[in-house]
Amino acid sequence: MKDRYLRVLSLIGAAAVFIVVLMGTLVTNTGSAYGCGNNWPLCNGQVIPTAQAHQTWIEFSHRAVSGIASILVVIIAVWIWIRLKQVREARFLAVSSVFFIFLQAFLGMGAVVWGQSSVVLALHFGVSLLSFSSNLLIAFIVWEETLPHSRRIVPPIRKGMTWNFILLSIYTYIVIYSGAFVRHTQSSLGCTDFPLCNGRIFPEPLISKAGVQYLHRALALILVIWVILTLIHCMRHYQSTPSLSIILFVSLILVFLQAVSGILIIETKMALVFLLLHALFITGFYGLLMILAMLGLRRSEN
């Protein structure tokens, strides 16, 4: 019975952090970062704000959900530290989930109280992704270890493919950071058309908002090609482990949808729905990549 509660709580925890990531995107793209002024943890000097501005309530809701998610993450971390102490990954993820959720909160607080550069603000989204991925992996392990008659998944992944998953995850993080940097430098409409950039193959000047967005486009194209090649390789050489190809196929769909939503951001002049979908798809994609990396590392350890 207790394991059932842990399974449910692990899913709720991952979902809560996922919502925090999306709400952070909502805060950024509605100009609500200072909806509570420069106050933290109070909102305009109040525990519960009375202001009617929607920016205030968006920022306040983001803080409230982040606080609830942080409490859930700590509870789950302590629980799995005790319940799954024999699983090395579980203890590592317990520590990392707590570390990243509080680092994310600290960066958010710092941006409000002290103000931060575009470089650090972009990093805030990257840390949020690591926080979500840690909790997603925790949920994966909890269900794997506590379901009746389940067994630990150790697919026959070769060391080369393990490194491919690891490098792909690192590269994806760089692409994600470049996308966040585009947003925090107000470069989302640096190129106003697609696939050209302001009617040119290469933006002029290169060191400009158009250049920032163009770099993100180029990195994203490489990512799509990399995922396609990895999927083809797994379909050819890992036919006995169809789960790998399934995860990669879903990943390819997500990265494709993420690219389409990015194009629609430009075509609709930054419609909020596509900005949110852009963040949603890349968050799910990165979570799946981290699962693949974890499965690959398991095989490498044996």
UniProtKB/TrEMBL annotation:
Write out the GO biological process terms. heme A biosynthetic process
Keywords of this entry: Cell membrane, Disulfide bond, Heme biosynthesis, Iron, Membrane, Metal-binding, Oxidoreductase, Transmembrane, Transmembrane helix
The source's domain of life comes to Bacteria
Q: What is this protein called?
A: Heme A synthase
Its lineage reads:
Bacteria, Bacillati, Bacillota, Bacilli, Bacillales
- What broad class describes the main subcellular location of this protein? membrane
Q: Which Pfam families match?
A: COX15-CtaA
Annotated compartments: Membrane
Known PANTHER family for this protein? HEME A SYNTHASE
